Write the structure tokens for this entry.
Amino acid sequence: MDEQIRQIGERIRGLRDALELSMEEMADRCGLRVEQYRKIESGDFDISVSTLQQIARKFDIPLDVLMFGEEPKMNSYFLTRWGTGISVERTKAYKYQALASGFRNRKADPFLVTVEPKPEDTPIYYNTHYGQEFNMVLEGRMLLSINGRDLILEQGDSLYFDSSLPHGMKALDGKAVKFLAIVM
């Protein structure tokens, strides 16, 4: 698995060690299965940003600390120039670029997400997490499936939804899709 994923796993293990919790206790507090949590710590699991956000919220730490190992420092504003946001590639198919990583105590996590195309018969990976989410397509087209309903989003289309509903996406037309995702 990717080096960035392994580093995220190490940071989560460090958090658990600092809290003096067993793997079982940590998994239980995070609402995860023990085996799933074990894979996250080992870096052998493609952990979603929403799961990272869930862990960060549970222990009241900035998402940036888990994703990037950096503590946000700004509290009045944080400027991200085009192409300069800190990024993490969860897999070869998903790249998340944080757009507000340096802002402390933010209420939402905005990302520029790039999803690479996969073969047509590849199933969609579904995710659920606490809160709400806003997605706006900047380039390309994507299929966004929410709670069993398939929606096609094209450039300029946006969608706001309850992220506790099972949702997943895939790029269409054999091309990458870029979209703004704001997770609240």
Notes: Residues 3-19 form the longest helix (17 residues). The CA atoms of residues 117 and 175 lie 6 Å apart. Strands lie at 87-91, 94-98, 109-115, 132-139, 142-146, 149-153, 158-162, 167-171, 177-183. The chain has a mean pLDDT of 89.
